Structures are given as structure tokens and as C-alpha cells.
Amino acid sequence: MILFGSPQPFFDRKTSIVSKYIDELDYCEKLFNLMHDNCPGNWYLCIIDFKNSHIQILDSLRFRSLDEFRFKSVKIMVEFF
Question: Based on the number of CB atoms within 10 Å of its own CB, is 5 exposed (0-12), middle (13-18) or buried (19 or more)?
């Protein structure tokens, strides 16, 4: 599943506090982040591709009713980077 809409505004946040102190992220192409879901015991993988400006969510137990929660969680995490 790939987030709809352009994630470009999230990738343009190079002036964030994190980038001031962690310049190694400039050399990072992909970030793999394991995230916990509201569903008990369910985890999903969020892959942020900085090089191609893509965000991908991989979940073996996808519940469409939780998509909005996941999108919000991923957007918050991406804004941090």
C-alpha cells in the first residue's frame, strides 16, 4: 500500500531540528521503521524512500478500518525526519 497524494512536502522538511544534528540522513536512501498498530499484537513496516520520495506501508494483517490511523501515524513519523 502506498500513501495517496504527494508526500513531497514531508520530504522537503530538511530544515528540521533533526537534520541539523543528524546529517547522515542526507546519505540515507531508505528508512525501514517497524510500527505498532492499535490492533493487539499487530505490527507493520513503514518504508520511507528518500531517494524516490515514496512511502510504503507493508502489513500482513491489513484492516481497512485502521488505514486512517496508520496514515496519520506514518505522517507524524515522517515529519520528524
Answer: exposed
Give me the residue spans of the domains in the chain.
8-80
Exposure string for 23-62, b = 16+ CB within 10 A, e = fewer: eeeeeeeeeeeeeebeeeeeebebebeeeeeebebebeeb
Tell me how far CA of residue 77 lies from CA of 30, 58, 74, in angstroms: 14, 16, 5
Per-residue cell: 23: 546529517
Nearest to 77 by CA among 51, 39, 42, 47: 47
Amino acid identity of residue 31, one-letter, is L
pLDDT tens readout for residues 12-62:
554 455 556 666 666 778 888 888 877 677 788 888 888 888 888 888 877
CA 9 to chain centre: 13
Taking the complete model, does pTM exceed 0.85, yes or no?
no
